[in-house]
Each structure stands twice: as C-alpha cells, then as structure tokens.
Amino acid sequence: MPSVIDERQAERLQYIDLCAYVLGAVNRNVLMNRFEIKQVLATRDISAYQEMSGENLTYDLALKCYRPSKNFVPRFIHNIDDAIQLLCDGTVTIDCEPRFVGNASTYRLPRITLSITTLYPAFQALSLSREVVISYMSVKNGPSTRTIAPHSLFRTGTFVYLRAFDHKSGEFRSFKLNRIIHCELLPTTPAIDQRKEYDDEWQRQVTLVIKVNEGVEHPESIAYDYNMENGELRVKVKKALVMFCLMDWNVAPLNFKGLPGILFPLKLVEVIE
C-alpha cells in the first residue's frame, strides 16, 4: 500500500509542476478538483513539492494561488502534448497498462515536435491574460520580434496555433507555435479592445457550403464519407478559422478550380456570413 500512495502523490506533484510551468499558477482547489482529494491532502502535496523543489513556488496573496518563482525550474520532464491538452481541454492523459491496449494495432502519423522550454512563457501569458514578446518566423515577412496578447489556443490536424492581438500590425492574428523561436512573459495585461471579445472574426461564425470536387471518380463515396445531404455539407466555423478548416480537410478554396480531386476531394462553393 505505501508504494501505491507514493506513486499517487508523485503524480500529483508532477501535476503541480506542470500547472506552475504552463499555467503560471496552481492552488489547492486545482489539486482537489483534478484528483478528488481533501484539502488537507492538497496542502500536504504543495508542502511536499516546495520541500522537494527548493522553493520553486511563491504565494500570491492577491490571487490566492502559488506562482512560479523567478528561479523556477521544472522538476519533472513534461510532454508538450500534455501542456497543450491542459490548456485546450483542462485535462491530462493517463496512460493505461500495456495489457489493456496490447491487442490493438495502431499507428500515429509523425507530428512536428514542439519545445515546451521555448513556449511556456506564451502558455503562461494565455493562462494569466498577460502580454508576451515573441521572436517569430513569418512566411511573408521572415523573422521579427513582436508583442502579442494571446487569448486562445487552437489545434488543427498537424499544427497548434495561438490566436492573439498583435501590436505590430494592430490586428488580431493567428500564430503557429512551430514558428515561435523565443518568447518572454511581460507583466502587462492587454487593453480592453485587445481582448477576445473584441476579436470580431473570432466571435463571428460563418457557414461553409462544401461539395465534392470535380475529378473524383466516385463522388458518392466522398459524400458518404462526410454524411452529406443532397450532395452538400454545411459546416459552421469561426470566421478566423475558415482557412485552417479548409487546409485541415483538404478543401479546394473558392476561385481555385482544377485542383486535383485525389488531393482535394472537397471544394468550397459558398461562405454564408
């Protein structure tokens, strides 16, 4: 029994470390909700983490939570996917014993690896509603340094993006995490008109009318794939995410005729505002 208890506490200590590292804050309620434990046990876990980490955390009286200290160093190795899942879904994956999944044959296509040590200040900025300076590699403008105020994180099939107000352009834009090569958390908070509720394209939804592209030998197969009705599919999506939806589903955009059906089995025929 002691070994089981130690193992469970180690999982909670790792979670404290992850929350402080990625969210920039952790408290007893976070542990109590995540692990369904009593307050006294959550207090004991935070004390154990402090003793183990050498004062990695400082208590913020105003926010009533523990914040990473200036000399914070993560005490566990964290997976970038866990960090993104925590930010997007508020959950962390638990690995099952091999015998539970040993009968299934699976394969995951290779994904581009992200660096949590590079991105954690941006994650903290998102969690704490702060601004962050990033060094960014843009396809159009090349490398640049800019201050952004992130308000959302979204995932496509291949990449992960930050939606943020960009001070350089004065607009809300989407930034691919893979292109952030350095970032630094700032103590400043975004102005009111730089927050999510003022991101018009994020707040507005449009309807994409999608049909099977020309050149597909058996269009009924594609229509069945996507459960189309009367030969078309209608998808509601945030206006800011239209381009990403088209790329993720391999949909030929408007005014791009002649794209091969083998690569673009679908085509966009209308965007309803």
Overview of the structural elements:
The chain is built from nine helices and eleven strands. The mean pLDDT is 91. A hairpin with a 4-residue loop joins strand 4 (142-155) and strand 5 (160-166). The longest helix has 22 residues, at 2-23. The termini are far apart. 33% of the residues lie in helices and 26% in strands. The protein has 273 residues and is an alpha+beta fold. The strands form three sheets. The chain has a five-stranded antiparallel β-sheet. The protein has helices spanning 2-23, 28-35, 39-53, 80-89, 98-101, 116-128, 200-203, 219-225, 242-249; strands spanning 57-60, 65-68, 132-138, 142-155, 160-166, 171-176, 180-185, 205-212, 232-238, 251-252, 266-272. It has three domains: 2-78, Arc Repressor Mutant, subunit A, CATH 1.10.10; 116-195, SH3 type barrels (Roll), CATH 2.30.30; 204-272, no CATH class. It is elongated.
Which CATH class of the largest domain applies here?
Mainly Beta
SS-derived structural category: alpha+beta
Q: What is the first-to-last residue Cα distance?
A: 60 Å
For the biggest β-sheet, the strand order reads 6-5-4-3-7
Domain WYL: 123-183
Domain DNA-binding transcriptional repressor CapW winged helix-turn-helix: 10-79
Protein name: WYL domain-containing protein
InterPro entries: CapW_CTD, WHD_CapW, WYL_dom
